[in-house]
Specification:
It comes from Cercocebus atys (Sooty mangabey). This is Cilia and flagella associated protein 161. InterPro entries: CF161. By secondary structure, the chain is an alpha+beta fold. It folds into two domains: about 30 residues, no CATH class; about 170 residues, Trefoil (Acidic Fibroblast Growth Factor, subunit A). The chain is elongated and about 100 Å long.
Length: about 250
């Protein structure tokens, strides 16, 4: 009669290999954790870098200088833009690829762009004006000069917080915000940004091609010039003066 020769403490199968495999997996996990290479650690670092609060440069002379930290904003124009997905002022934002952001410790270059309703300067919507040819930190940025994207005009070079056009150097197409189209990005649904010039019947660029280089608010370091109340229009100011309501 056959007898069971195995007791409850006897291991069968590839138990030794399983033990070594578990030990190797734990060792690999601890090594990645110590080096900060775990997926959750990379996600946390990426969000901390892109969502951390930033302080914009403040302009006293009305000019934009190389080295300034600014936000690029597509101002709201509800009178001409109807049936939009996102209203209000939209700031240009860096939009990393979701898969690549899990595999790399640094932001992938080139990086995608989108536009969101964000008036607070953070890492992903704050840009530094850099010269493409030489170190020109502190020098005034003028219309027609390149800083990776070209600014064309022929007006007064005091472009801080004023509506401007931004064209791609190679195609001469204008930067545009598609408020009626959205992208599913790493941070949720955001407006699409493309290089395309939209002209009206008078061959003038439409509001979706209008942008502003927004600087910091000198009254409050945590806000921008968009947070300041808008000055009254000239006709309104003249009427107030005629009625004796002007306090200046």
């Amino acid at each position: 009669m056959a007898q069971n020769l195995y007791g409850p403490g006897v291991r069968i199968g590839n138990w030794n290999e399983d033990v070594y495999l578990e030990e190797e997996l734990m060792k690999d996990f601890l090594e990645k954790r110590d080096k900060g290479k775990l997926l959750i650690q990379r996600r946390r670092r990426l969000k901390q870098n892109l969502l951390r609060p930033m302080q914009l440069s403040m302009t006293e002379d009305g000019y934009i200088h190389y080295g300034d930290k600014v936000m690029l904003v597509n101002p709201d124009d509800p009178d001409t833009e109807a049936d939009v997905f996102l209203g209000g002022d939209l700031s240009l934002c860096m939009t990393p690829d979701e898969i690549q952001s899990h595999l790399r410790d640094e932001l992938e270059v080139p990086c995608g762009l989108s536009a969101v309703q964000a008036k607070t300067p953070i890492g992903r919507n704050t840009f530094i004006i850099l010269s493409v040819h030489r170190d020109a930190t502190g020098q005034v940025l003028r219309y027609g000069q390149d800083f990776c994207l070209g600014i064309t005009g022929g007006f007064d070079n005091k472009m801080a917080n004023a509506k401007i056009l931004i064209n791609h150097c190679h195609t001469n197409r204008g930067l545009a915000a598609h408020r009626h189209l959205f992208l599913s990005t790493y941070f949720g649904k955001e407006a699409e940004v493309v290089a395309h010039t939209y002209l009206d019947s008078h061959r003038v660029e439409k509001p979706r091609n209008h942008w502003m280089l927004v600087t910091g608010n000198p009254r409050d370091a945590s806000s921008t010039m968009l947070d300041l109340p808008k000055p009254p229009a000239e006709d309104t100011r003249a009427m107030e003066q005629a009625m004796g309501l002007d306090t200046q």
